[in-house]
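Before we proceed, please read the two lines closing this message. Let me know whether the structure tokens fit the sequence:

…
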Amino acid sequence: MKRREPQYKSLPSNEQWEFAEIVCGKLEVFKDITAIFSGSNYPTANLFFAKVCDLRLRLMEWLVDPNPMIVSMAANMWDKFTKYWDDIHMLLVVAVVMDLRYKLDLVGYYAAKFGISSTDLVIDRVRDVVSDLVVQY
């Protein structure tokens, strides 16, 4: 760039380019989720749960990354993510439970991945929520 554009006085170092490549790779998950969330020609609510859970798992990994910059960015993302997770995760769970391909199996799978030892309690709670919705309907 410096040879082509004389206005560039300083360029990113090799380490900075490598870091940018790492960050771009990590942010790829947001591109995938955005594509699913913005779908308007077909129902996608049943796909949201798995994608959001995958994002949660990625954030959990990034929180223990050896690079302190990644940890710092992940901590900020985690704070925002948990705020919304607490509000909407049960809605996403209900959508996935209604999908005959997944039912409660996917809920148990992700509960175990999140380190929840009592997955049966999580599944029982989901079952109660879905039952209450059916009764109300």
Remarks:
- Residues 68-98 form the longest helix (31 residues).
- The chain is about 75% helix and 0% strand.
- Residues 59 and 65 are 10 Å apart (CA to CA).
